[in-house]
Amino acid sequence: MNVQEYISSGIVESYVLGLASPEEQREFEQMSAQYPEVLEARIAFETSLEQQAMSNTIIPPPAFKAQVRAAVFLENQTQQAKVVTIDRGAPVVRTGWIKYAAAAAVILLAGSLFWNISLFNENNKLKTDYTAATGRLADLEKDMSTLMNPNVQMTAMKGLEASPASYTTVYWDSTAKSVFLLVNNLPKPASDKQYQLWAILDGQPVDLGMIDNQYLIGQRPLLLRMNNVSGAQAFAITLEKAGGNPKPEGPMYTLGNR
Amino acid sequence: MSITQKYSEQELVSLLQQRQESSFGYLYDNYAGALLGVVGGIVADQETARDVLQEVFVNIWRKIELYDPAKGRLFTWMMNIARNAAIDKIRSKGYQDSLKNHSIPENADQNFPATGPQVDDVGLRKVLNQLKEEHRVLVDLSYFQGYTHDEISKALNIPLGTVKTRIRSALIHLRTLIKQ
């Protein structure tokens, strides 16, 4: 086969487009080193291929360049580090790169560590908040089901002379005889004093229990479970000494008749 | 007045090989569109094609020391990196899996796995469509889908020698079409 036949056999295109077999590639490289015509034909086809590609571009979005640059240089840093560790005879210039790469790695690591810690903390806080919120939700749902029970009767207790703005509500379950107190508004008592709830049954006060001062500050359960009572004509709250009294002695804050 | 620096291919290669950071910008500005055109002829999905393009630039930057001017022009070398990356992508399991959600094109050859929707008006594909059918199929399978002559011969039940001859004459015709 003469050189012209070789050139026009399609091998040039095959080689340039990457479709030639390894043997064909070796042969072609040998031929183009030996015959300028072959080399010329190769360059001519490459040039027209490049022109064809240059007139058939797809332009990526402008922001894409920064993304590619980041990928290239990130890759490059790790690559340089690898080159240096493998190649012991690497020129001195390259140690400059590994310094930067190492410094960058340390900074990245520190940054990532810091970020991880803050994420961890944030995660823990979210967990705690979540547990608290679900607990609170469960309490409220329980209160809600108490209020919706058709056997539960409500008694509004209005403020008396000692504190006209005070207001409390008793919910009494006529079947289970259980008593729930809602403190709508009561002034905060002195630390040696405590409010006490009474039922008035046949003219006699029945002790229904103490209201923990803690329930009067901050977040508190909506309904306080008090002592059971078989019945009542009225409910009252008095301010007593801490721990309460067997019979009411202090001023009455709220009163409600059934 | 803006001055656009213009490097000769030799200068560009030497800057790239020295890993001059500025050469990346030049390389990208001058070749991103053409290389995305090459990738786009093989990978139809634009977003996937851009992923491949990013990989192509990473590979060019990483392998630039292996580039040998005696074996071809810089663009030819980059174009082959782009073609190989694109073919690797369409053959990857992830890409194949994503295709299962799409219907297989009607004229798909049963002997080859689907490579997804194709774009007919991108780059070399545009030229491909001007070839006669028997040539078009062979160039498509070998150049755009990366099958070896042997694989094509077995799948289409055509003797290996015939596959080779037909691809060669298809490529010669392709060259005349490109030159127009």
From TrEMBL, chain A:
Domain Anti-sigma K factor RskA C-terminal, by residue range, is: 101-252
Recorded hits in Pfam families, A to Z, give: RskA_C
Task: Report keywords, A-Z.
Answer: Membrane, Transmembrane, Transmembrane helix
- UniProt entry tagged with the keyword Cell inner membrane: no
Ranges annotated as spanning the membrane: 97-117
InterPro entries reported for this sequence = Anti-sigma-K/W_factor, RskA_C
Q: Which domain of life is it from?
A: Bacteria
Residues annotated as coiled-coil are none
PANTHER family hit by this protein: ANTI-SIGMA-K FACTOR RSKA (PTHR37461:SF1)
Q: What is this protein called?
A: Anti-sigma factor
What species is this protein from?
Terrimonas ginsenosidimutans
Recall the taxonomic lineage recorded for the source organism: Bacteria, Pseudomonadati, Bacteroidota, Chitinophagia, Chitinophagales
UniProtKB/TrEMBL annotation, chain B:
> What InterPro entries does the record tag this protein with?
RNA_pol_sigma-70-like, RNA_pol_sigma-70_dom, RNA_pol_sigma70_r2, RNA_pol_sigma70_r4_t2, RNA_pol_sigma_r2, RNA_pol_sigma_r3/r4-like, WH-like_DNA-bd_sf
Which UniProt keyword terms apply here? Sigma factor, Transcription, Transcription regulation
Where is each RNA polymerase sigma factor 70 region 4 type domain found? 124-174
Where is the RNA polymerase sigma-70 region domain positioned along the sequence?
Answer: 27-93
Per the record's keyword annotation, is Transcription included, yes or no? yes
Keyword flag Transcription regulation? yes
Q: Which family does it belong to?
A: Belongs to the sigma-70 factor family. ECF subfamily.
Record-given protein name? Sigma-70 family RNA polymerase sigma factor
